[in-house]
């Protein structure tokens, strides 16, 4: 996940610079994913209707990315289906 990793590294470096933290310090990051399954479903419908182009990620790939973020960056991910959950 090179693009995601670059974004997360920039986020961590920005946090350290803003709060004058050292390399040993790590921010606590939570990602709130709002209706992500609906967005994936729509992406797949659009992909199938076009019949070409890059394939969107599937649910298994999403779960793999979430697990990777937890292991590599200790990022907690919260899935929300309604605005009240957010």
Comma- or semicolon-separated keywords:
elongated, two-stranded parallel sheet, 86 residues, mainly alpha
Report on this model:
The structure is a single chain. The chain has three helices and two strands. It has 86 residues and is mainly alpha-helical. The longest helix has 18 residues, at 2-19. Strands 1-2 form a two-stranded parallel sheet. It is elongated. The model has no long low-confidence stretch (mean pLDDT 92). Helix content is 56%, strand content 12%.
The poorly predicted ranges are none
What composes the largest sheet?
2 strands, parallel
Radius of gyration, rounded?
Answer: 16 Å
Got a strand count?
Answer: 2
Q: Structural class given helices, strands, pairing? A: mainly alpha
Q: What distance separates the N and C termini? A: 26 Å
**Spatial order of the strands in the main sheet?**
1-2
Outline the secondary-structure elements.
Layout: H1 2-19, E1 30-34, H2 36-50, H3 59-73, E2 76-80
Parallel strand pairs: 1-2
Brief sketch in words of this structure:
With 86 residues, this protein is mostly helical.
